[in-house]
Amino acid sequence: MRTESPQHLARGGKWDTGGFLLDAAAMPRPADLAGLYGNARPVELEIGSGKGTFLLARAKARPEVNFLGIEWAGAYAAYCADRFRRHGLANVRMVHADATYFLPKHLAAAAVQRVHIYFPDPWPKRRHHRRRSIQRPFLAELRRVLTPGGQLLIVTDHADYAQHIHRVLEGAPGFARIDFPKMVDAEDGRVGTNFERKYIAQGRPFYRFARLRIR
C-alpha cells in the first residue's frame, strides 16, 4: 500500500507534524518502540484514530503509557500529529498506514498491552463486507501483537457490523471475554471519540466488545 510521507502530508504549512507523524516506509521491521519513545513503558495502540480526540485525552491522562495511533486517511493522520505536538505530548505518535498492512510488517509479537478500535467503517453494503477490518485473519494478527493479558477493545454503533464482530470474536482462539473498562469519561465506559459524542447526541445504541489475550 502506498502511503504519503510526513513531509508531503504537512506540505503547505497547514499542519506541523514534526516528530509526531512517523514515516511507515522508513520504519524498521519490526519497529523499535522503546527507541521510538526513549523508554520501555507499555504501549497502547489505536486503530483508526480519526481526529485524535480519544488519543489526546488518553495520552494526557496516562503519561506513564506510550500511545501509537494508526490512521489510513493522510489528512487526519497529519491533523492528529499536529494536535499532539501543540499539546506537548511526548508519549504519543501517529502513523499514516493501513493497519492490516502495518501490523504484520512493523509490530513485533507481544508489542502492545491494549488495542483500541472505535467506530470502524462498517462497510454496510453486502458486497463490501470483505473490506471490514474485523476479520479472522486480522484478529489473529491482533492477538499476536498483544501481550499475554493484553486487552482488545472494540466499539461500534452499527448493529449488523456488531453481529459480524460477535461472530468473529466468538470463534477466535486465545481470547477470553471481559467487562468493558472505563476509559476517558467517568461514566458508562465511554471512550471519548468524536464519533461517540456525535452518536450519543443522536441517541444511537453502542455495541462494546472487550477481550483478554489468554495465550
Number of strand segments: 8
* Approximate helicity band: 25-40%
Q: What distance separates the N and C termini?
A: 31 Å
Let me know the largest β-sheet: 8 strands, mixed
CATH architecture: 3-Layer(aba) Sandwich
Question: What is the molecular shape?
Answer: globular
Strand order of the largest sheet: 1-4-3-2-5-6-8-7
Order of helices and strands: HEHEHEHEHEHEHEHE
Description:
With 215 residues, the chain is an alpha/beta fold. It has one domain (6-213): Rossmann fold, CATH 3.40.50.150. The protein has eight helices and eight strands. The protein has helices spanning 6-9, 33-37, 53-61, 74-86, 99-106, 136-145, 159-170, 194-202; strands at 21-22, 43-47, 66-71, 92-96, 112-118, 146-156, 175-177, 207-213. It has an eight-stranded mixed β-sheet with strand order 1-4-3-2-5-6-8-7, sandwiched between helices. It is globular.
SSE topology:
Elements: H1 6-9, E1 21-22, H2 33-37, E2 43-47, H3 53-61, E3 66-71, H4 74-86, E4 92-96, H5 99-106, E5 112-118, H6 136-145, E6 146-156, H7 159-170, E7 175-177, H8 194-202, E8 207-213
Parallel strand pairs: 1-4, 2-3, 2-5, 3-4, 5-6
Antiparallel strand pairs: 6-8, 7-8
Give a short overview.
It is built from 8 helices and 8 strands, in the order H-E-H-E-H-E-H-E-H-E-H-E-H-E-H-E. It has an 8-stranded mixed beta sheet, with helices on both faces.
Features of the shown structure:
single chain; 215 residues; alpha/beta; Rossmann fold; 8-stranded mixed sheet; 8 helices; 8 strands; 33% helix
